[in-house]
UniProtKB/TrEMBL annotation:
Listed name of the protein: SH3 domain-containing protein
Superkingdom of the source species: Eukaryota
Stretches assigned to the KY-like immunoglobulin-like domain: 12-83
Length: 85
């Protein structure tokens, strides 16, 4: 689990899990984002041993973030996780 505290309100968090030789679409259901007040928790289900990349993106709720009518996701951080079971 990864926890963050928001210093300003954000409209959306997106977590994306990656693993070598595994299609990213097969890993989509293994990340869950929970927001409670100003705390964001990202739960990850690592289904097998190996090295994973976890990318976290955010979307601002401010109108200043608009680009041609579309809000863009901003890459927030990246984790490299070694899983042993």
């Amino acid at each position: 689990m990864v926890c963050f505290r928001m210093v300003k309100p954000l409209a959306e968090f997106v977590a994306s899990l990656h693993k070598n030789r595994v299609d990213d679409r097969n890993l989509q259901g293994h990340c869950q984002t929970l927001i409670n007040g100003d705390t964001v928790k990202i739960l990850v289900d690592f289904y097998e041993e190996g090295q994973y990349g976890l990318d976290i993106y955010t979307r601002e709720s401010s109108p200043a973030a608009l680009n041609g009518g579309k809000q863009l996701l901003t890459h927030c951080c990246k984790y490299l996780v070694n899983v042993r079971m």
